[in-house]
Amino acid sequence: MDNLNNECILVCVYYGPNGERLIKRGCKIANMLQAPLYILTIDSKPFDELDAEKVFYIEKWKEYANANASAQFIMKDNESRPVTKVIAEVAREKQVTQIILGQTAHSRWEQITKGSIINSLVRDIPFVDLHIISVSRYIRDGEGLYRDGVRAYLIKDGEQYRLSFSHEKNTEYEGIFFKETDTDFDNGIFRFMKDAETMQVLVHDGIVTEFKNVDMNTAMGLDDSDE
């Protein structure tokens, strides 16, 4: 891809479903400007110590990068430095001109919206445009709302699987459960790894009756029309 405008886009994501929305926004801008795109996430722990929930999100972000010819995923793990220092380092190394950050409730990236950290980024990388994008705590589909994902487990129970929020001896799968908000029952979507592939299955009243894969973006309303 010819970078006609000498632009370079960096999307900074942290764990949670809103990362996909930020990446899609970055892809649109990068494609419009015919610019390279970098997707960055930062964690203080080494990659091999991350739990299943974090690994799921990382694998999804990698899929987005692989699907876009101009995109590259960057993982900075085992980091003790402030996130702003890491962002600035990557921005200089990749000659980034625009950075996209998400203002997500109850996430580490909330720090980015505070004046002192904004000032730190502006001071460290004054040549970069900052885009602070407000995103919802919830994700939605055409009919209702899903809560943010929480760690959960599937326990074999006869011909079906029972959802549990604590690890038991007979746990078969560990993953993320996205619960519908307008119900007192455990209805929603369970996302997990099976045979080295990511699967999303429907949960009704805490039970999974079949491993029929459903599209996460369609089910949760994360398609391009949401932008």
TrEMBL record:
Pfam families to which the protein is assigned, alphabetical: Usp
Xref: InterPro entries: Histidine_kinase_KdpD, Rossmann-like_a/b/a_fold, UspA
Ranges of residues in domain UspA: 9-126
Name listed for the protein in its UniProt record: Universal stress protein
Source organism of this protein record: Paenibacillus haidiansis
